[in-house]
Design goal:
The protein is 43% helix and 16% strand. It is of the alpha/beta class. The chain folds into three domains: 119 residues, 3-Layer(aba) Sandwich (Rossmann fold), CATH 3.40.50; 148 residues, Orthogonal Bundle (Arc Repressor Mutant, subunit A), CATH 1.10.10; 81 residues, no CATH class. The strands form three sheets. Strands 8-9-10-11-13-12 form a six-stranded mixed β-sheet, with helices on both faces. A five-stranded parallel β-sheet has the order 2-3-4-1-5, sandwiched between helices.
């Protein structure tokens, strides 16, 4: 197992709450993490039909089998258990009794808010970070290999071929989970939608354009996007418009939680294709913003990440509010430094809102400038976010 940064926060929250819920996409490593960090806990997979049947038909009898500490994997498969778990933790008043994992936010959040409010810590585990790979002694040749190979642990543990692995992942998990959540009549149509969505990565979502190109109505697009987000396949980066008036774009951008899946959906079959792909800038941006998101989640924090764009063309790729301070990040896929990379940050800092830190993240070397701004490699994105005041 590649050690995960989230394990520190997992242990801490188990000392603070009777329940800790770990959410994240399929195959991100939730089961591996919890079982490795908590070997003394009993383990039950609710994907197992027999276990799920007992849990749903006789929750009391099911839970009596595990009077001490237990990991209940894929809890969204038996949400009936949550009310009974509430009764147990309220009676025992002991921290660290239950660890729940799940891969569907929508199914769990309502149940958690109703049954477990104030009783559970909630953590998010996304696929591996570059730092986690490096600490495990895994270094890839260049940014294109990181983008293409993606970050699912199994790709590294089993030395899988990325394009084949993500094709199987899409068909086995993404399509299957979507079928469980909606009445998907046309799998081909949904796959077309996914590929169109990949082609719009890093762009402001245009629901009607997606609907027209897919051949469905706008409400269907919104429903599918919500399900993909709830299943941690994609995430929305919201716009930052606090106190900036009506000139600000208020529609989110869309990104994928794994660049390997993104490359698969873009039809990239070999790593050599990436450097020539017209969307390389967007895919690189996805990687950098995803690293920031993972860093926040691994510390047990909310995302609290935004972009900025107004109708005058001023734009910042990533804004990170930290109290009264605001960190600004511009993202460039180039490997050679150009002074123009800082321009958007300077304009925003002078004309829109002061920035406590101004950083350009690119495919190059670290540079510290006399005006206080910095340039950092994409591999250092975790440090960029950490240094902003975590």
């Amino acid at each position: 197992m590649i050690p995960r940064h989230l394990q520190t926060e997992l242990k801490t929250q188990l000392s603070e709450y009777p329940i800790v819920t770990v959410l994240g996409p399929r195959q991100a490593g939730k089961t591996t993490l919890t079982r490795a960090v908590l070997p003394e806990y009993a383990y039950v997979s609710l994907e197992n039909p027999d276990m799920r049947q007992l849990a749903t038909e006789d929750p009391r009898a099911f839970l009596k089998q595990y009077p001490n500490r237990v990991i209940l994997d894929e809890i969204q498969r038996a949400p009936e258990l949550l009310s009974y778990i509430q009764g147990i933790v309220d009676e025992n008043r002991t921290n660290g009794q239950f660890v729940l994992t799940g891969s569907h936010q929508l199914q769990l959040r309502e149940s958690i808010s109703q049954s477990l409010a104030g009783r559970t810590g909630v953590l998010h585990l996304l696929p591996l970070t570059i730092a986690e790979l490096s600490e495990a002694g895994i270094y890839l040749d260049d940014v294109y290999h990181y983008l293409f190979q993606g970050f699912l642990p199994r790709v590294y543990d089993q030395n899988q071929r990325p394009h084949i692995a993500y094709g199987n992942y899409f068909q086995t998990y993404v399509e299957r989970d979507v079928r469980q959540l909606i009445k998907l009549k046309d799998v081909v149509l949904f796959e077309k939608f996914m590929k169109l969505l990949a082609g719009r990565v890093g762009q402001i979502i245009n629901y009607q354009s997606l609907a027209n190109d897919t051949g469905v109505d706008g409400m269907t697009i919104k429903s599918w996007l919500s399900i993909l987000e709830a299943s941690y396949v994609v995430f929305r980066l919201p716009p930052y418009f606090e106190n900036f008036g009506k000139r600000i774009i208020k529609t989110p951008k869309i990104y994928f939680t794994d660049t390997g899946l993104l490359c698969y959906l873009l039809g990239i079959e070999r790593v050599e294709q990436l450097s020539r792909d017209p969307l390389i800038g967007n895919v690189f941006e996805n990687l950098v913003i995803l690293e920031a998101l993972k860093t926040r989640y691994n510390a047990g924090l909310s995302a609290n990440l935004y972009f900025y764009r107004d109708n005058q063309g001023h734009e910042i790729d990533l804004l990170c509010p930290r109290g009264h301070e605001l960190l600004g990040v511009e993202i460039k896929s180039a490997s050679t430094w150009n002074s123009s990379f800082k321009k958007a940050l300077e304009i925003f800092n002078q004309k829109v809102h002061p920035l406590s830190k101004r950083t350009v993240v690119y495919n190059g070397q670290t540079i510290d400038f006399s005006d206080g701004s910095t340039a950092r490699s994409y591999k250092e994105m975790a440090m960029v976010v950490d240094s902003s005041g975590r």
